[in-house]
Amino acid sequence: MADTKIYMNRELSWLKFNERVLEEAESETVPLCERLSFISIYQSNLDEFFMVRVGSLVDQMLLSPNVKDNKSNMTPKEQVAAILKQVNVLNHRKDAVYEQLMEQLETHGIRLVDFHKIDKKKSEELEAYYDEEIAPLLAPTMVGKKQPFPFLKNREIYAVAVLEGKSGKEKLGIIPCTSSVFPRLIAVPYEEGTYMLSEELLLHFMPKVFKGYHVKAKSLIRVTRNADIDTDSMNDEDLDYREFMAALIKKRKRLSPVRLELSRDLDGEIIDTLCQYLGVKSEYVFRNDTPLEMSFLFQIQDILRRVPELFYEKRIPQKSPQFESDMPILPQIKEQDKLLSYPYDSMKPFLEMLREAANDESVIAIKMTLYRVARQSKVVEALIEAAENGKDVLVLVELKARFDEENNIEWSRRLEAAGCQVIYGLDGYKVHSKMCLIIRKNEEGQAEYYTQIGTGNYNEKTSRLYTDLSLMTHNQRIGQEAAMVFQALAKGETVEETHDLLVAPKCLQNKVLEMIEEEIRHAQLGEATYIGVKINSLTDKKIIDRLIAASKAGVKIDLIVRGICCLIPGVEGMTENIRVISIVGRFLEHSRIYIFGTEEREKIYIASADFMTRNTIHRVEVAAPIYDERLQKRVKEMFQTMLYDNQQARLMQPDGSYIRIHAEDAPLNSQENFYAQAYLQEKHS
Questions:
Q1: What kind and span of H or E run contains 658?
Q2: What are residue 221's DSSP bridge partners?
Q3: CATH of the domain at 372
């Protein structure tokens, strides 16, 4: 049996990550309006967690109830029980911090009220508004023999009431509260800055909808449905991937509920009735003291934009000093490798490179993988322009990018219509790599490669919010291997062997394990050793076990893991040479960096892959080596800066908990430090 004290369950580790997000909402050092963002992110994170991870575990409880997690030896039932217990604890904290934030908003002239806090005159005005603007749009249902329980849409709010007729019989009344017609935040008349949520207004006036009935009890409710749709059947060669995926998306919207949330206390018998109708067990019911959906907080932020001190200081991605403004991009890449660091560096050089390639007569082909792109994507527009200009454009669009499927389906149609060759990935594998290859004929008429490989998506919006790295190189060996990857994708195959790139599913995990083994061998010879890794998640047990072996051999290991980390550091005799920190701050840490070896023999990569089994052996991922000494130095300095962060970093303890790193030295916020450097370089360029 595995020594469980050095492993953590994946799902419970994820909840610890979301707890760190909640801590940012609790922190007095974070500006008030930014704290609103963090509490909203906490809730939306939890929604997705229930839809995907809890949904998957619920399925496992039915199909494979005795299968145990390979790290914690917990069955699906035990995992769900532990999750529900921890979520209840975290939600109490969420309720408390929400109340605190609302109190602080009042000092800035913003109040959220219900009918108990407004006078008669305002009540009458709101009732008139309800009668004229809301009531005509409602679609109430009274559940009975002639009217079955309605289908409740995923994550939408409903008002539910227990109705007692004159005969004493009880029925359920249900009204959808979500509408694109009336606003979520309704201004209270005669009181500037005071608002009421539309669902609270609707709930208050339910007796007007169900006239002739006594409303015995009422509450707002919200259902979260399982979204863990099965894409395995996409492996049929005769299948139209795009149409099949569109059908799966529709199916997802009707999957079974995995959570029921309430805004009010209801009698246990009523809850049992709701659970029976929905097919939900009582342990999946959560009572909230906060609104059931928090997107309205972003509207409150907009109202308060006039007060800059309530927000983080405005930051704008800066022009990279690596590029000359008055010169074409491709010749500059040919002269020297370039590395963009988002959001500190602007994405513009990459977009300019694509536009330049689209209009360069010497460019013969552009090949690209797309996983997530912006709604109004300049990247896709450049690819369409290239195809219209007669370039050979190959685009792999990953239709299985969770929750971005519909956007990707639409872009795939537009790309095809423009003349691009669109492919949809491999049987059984998601294509998660971030790779662009430009093939251009040089002055001698020979084909040469310009390759971009990144850690994040080709999304202009998230490039301002996520930290990512983007390598742009004229290295022909890298270009040849990138071309080999695209050729394999076009044939529906995986790459069998590489020399420069690490390419999952067959040439990444094994090569990472080999580099760990190399450090172990050097440690056994008494030589200096080092492993430094920055990723979003660490769950791959093969890699975890070799990292443990490396620690036992004396290899020094630094891990910067933002989210899930199933390896517990600092356990004597096992992982005492491993240090794990997590940085949760203003920007979402998304870049992946692998460093193996000490200075004279070190290997440095940036990658699209986390150390999760789904990435290392179930997806097509690409890690690119950094060969340019200037860029190696820059990546190492960035990594070291993050290691010394004492403002946003938390240190994982031997019991699996996280503590904030206190500023014994001068305060260092790595994200603010990188932005300060970007602004200084722009000033001096």
A1: strand 658-660
A2: 158, 262
A3: 3.30.870.10
pLDDT at site 227: 85
Give the residue numbers annotated as catalytic, written as ranges. 432
Q: How many CB atoms lie within 10 A of CB 284?
A: 20
CATH code where residue 172 lies: 3.30.1840.10
- pLDDT for res 294: 96
pLDDT of res. 236: 46
Distance CA 127, CA 135 (A): 10
Average pLDDT for residues 197-217, to the nearest whole number?
95
- Mean pLDDT of the 312-327 span: 94
Q: Residue 651: what pLDDT? A: 97
Least reliable range by pLDDT among 329-338, 373-382, 458-467, 567-576: 373-382
- The CA distance from 535 to 685, in Å, is 32
Let me know if residue 303 belongs to a domain. Answer: no
Alpha-carbon torsion angle 409, 413, 419, 424, nearest 10: 30
Instruction: Answer whether residue 300 is part of any domain.
Output: no
Angle CA(357)–CA(363)–CA(369) in degrees, nearest 5?
Answer: 60
| Pick from 39-43, 424-428, 471-475, 645-649: least confident | 424-428
Per residue in 519-534, pLDDT tens? 999 999 999 999 999 9
> Residue 192 and residue 529: Cα distance in Å, rounded?
64
DSSP code of 72? T
| Neighbouring C-beta atoms of residue 161, cutoff 10 Å | 25
191-195 CB contacts, 8 Å cutoff, 24+ apart: 191/111, 191/118, 191/122, 192/109, 193/109, 193/110, 193/111, 193/303, 194/111, 194/112, 194/113, 194/118, 195/110, 195/111, 195/112, 195/113
What is the chain's length?
A: 685
Question: Of 227, 98, 233, 209, which is closest to residue 158 (Cα–Cα)?
Answer: 209
In a shared domain, residues 654 and 566: yes
pLDDT at 146 exceeding the cut of 60: yes
Q: How far apart are CA 659 and CA 372, in angstroms?
A: 33
Reply yes or no on whether the pLDDT at 684 is more than 80. no
With 70 as the cut, is the pLDDT of residue 250 above it? no
User: Would you call 579 exposed, middle or buried from its count of C-beta atoms within 10 A (0-12, 13-18, 19+)?
Assistant: middle
Are both 591 and 520 inside the same structural domain?
A: yes
First CA to last CA distance, the chain: 59
Element (H, E) at 382: helix 378-388
For the CA atoms of the chain, what is the radius of gyration?
A: 27
| Alpha carbons 311 and 313: distance in angstroms, whole number | 6
Could you tell me if residue 247 is inside a domain? no
**Range(s) of the domain holding residue 534:** 503-684
Higher pLDDT, 251 or 634: 634
Strands 556-561 and 530-535: parallel
Measure CA 53 to chain center.
14
* pTM of the shown model: 0.93
